[in-house]
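Input record (one chain):
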Amino acid sequence: MTEEWIATAVVRATPEAVVVCDAEGVIRLWNDGAQRMFGYSADEALGQNLDIIIPEKLRKRHWDGYHKTMATGQTRYGDQLLSVPATHRDGHRLSIEFSVALLQQDGRIVGISAIMREVTERRNEERALRARLADVEARLAELEGAAS
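The corresponding structure, as predicted from the sequence alone:
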């Protein structure tokens, strides 16, 4: 087993989406996890840019940050788990969490990799729980006000 074979096997086998883009934001690697998450096959995604999964209203912000990161080699998200909305091929909204790593060659940034996990169901459950909690707190405040 070579290191290259191991790396390839890990990327192929992982259930998370693994996406690699070059410095211009063109998708260069799209694993089976990405296909399951976003609905695009590797043949459809490779050579495209990330607009295929970024909600339209967030694209300018994304690309401003992406190009700044490529130019400076700095990202404030290097060791953070990011939570953002994304778009599936069929148009429905996804909630995803991901980490990024800058890819360097000969001392310059040549791309970025992201490992993503869909958390839509968990986000919806958290939203519902927060709404229920707010309702209980409001009712409690009413009861406390009535008792005074």
